[in-house]
Give the backbone structure.
Amino acid sequence: MNTIKELFNIEYPVIQGGMIWASGWKLASAVSNAGGLGLIGAGSMYPDVLREHIQKCKKATNNPFGVNIPMLYPNLSEIIEIIIEEEVKIVFTSAGNPKKYTSFLKENGITVVHVVSSLKFALKAQSAGVDAVVAEGFEAGGHNGRDETTTLTLIPIVKEELKIPLIAAGGIATGAAMYAVMALGADGVQVGSRFVASNEASSHIDFKQMVVDAKEGDTQLTLKELAPVRLLKNKFYQEVTELYAKDPSIDDLKALLGRARAKRGMFEGDLHDGELEIGQVSGLIHDIKPAKVIIEDMIKEFKITQNRMKQVSL
Ligand SMILES: Cc1cc2nc3c(=O)[nH]c(=O)nc-3n(C[C@H](O)[C@H](O)[C@H](O)COP(=O)(O)O)c2cc1C
């Protein structure tokens, strides 16, 4: 029995995290067709673009899929309206207060999951009435919490108190890592960085290749005063570091970040001046492959690990 498989009616408890400039309908539908749960990342889409992606995703898969809404982005109410009109059945919210929309979404028959980076926010999400929580460790790609709690620590701490299903995220790109977090109490996994290096991700090919080339130590969590985000250490990151040496104000940081940095880096492939979001686990990603193969390999490796662990004696 697996509560995450049952909650979403999917074959494997593997969720592809919503990712700006990476997870459009092509990636989400490929993951859902392969037995996982694909999520369209609404964070980088204008409302009409999101509607188009939902409609294309419905045509590309008969399996369940969902939409991720980072609540720090504009057009929230318009996006929620589209989700309801298009009869999307699963929503993952992140980066904001789950109280704001959870009951409204649930009244409309939607399964709601909220992404958190601490026990405190996991319990807040549970009180807001979500169906499950994604607990995301500090090693994860994209925006993250300020407390720097790693997945290895966060999952068992959240598990101790949470009563609803728990999905682990951050640093999971292999079946062995999936096995490890499930041993710590997770019911399923949310995977981000590994799916950036997939054929179906909408990210620029040069960014995908940079993810494949990345080594351990090539990412850093930064911009904590704005919205903490883990970035590849490119020229833009170096400029951020140089600015920090000058004790900048929040406005200085905002001015350096400017507008559309993430699009420039991850979607348009400006590897020097763009913002390149990826997790620490990029050091373990060595190839670009179809989403279906990513899932098949994870499941295969999970089972190999399960058997291997039976032989381990202490
Ligand atoms: C390029 C990129 C963009 C992301 N964008 C979002 C987003 O829009 N919303 C969100 O909730 N999480 C976002 N994330 C986080 C992922 O959904 C996922 O939780 C995280 O990547 C898991 O950690 P991992 O990268 O170690 O697998 C993003 C991650 C990456 C790598």
Remarks:
- The longest strand covers residues 65-70.
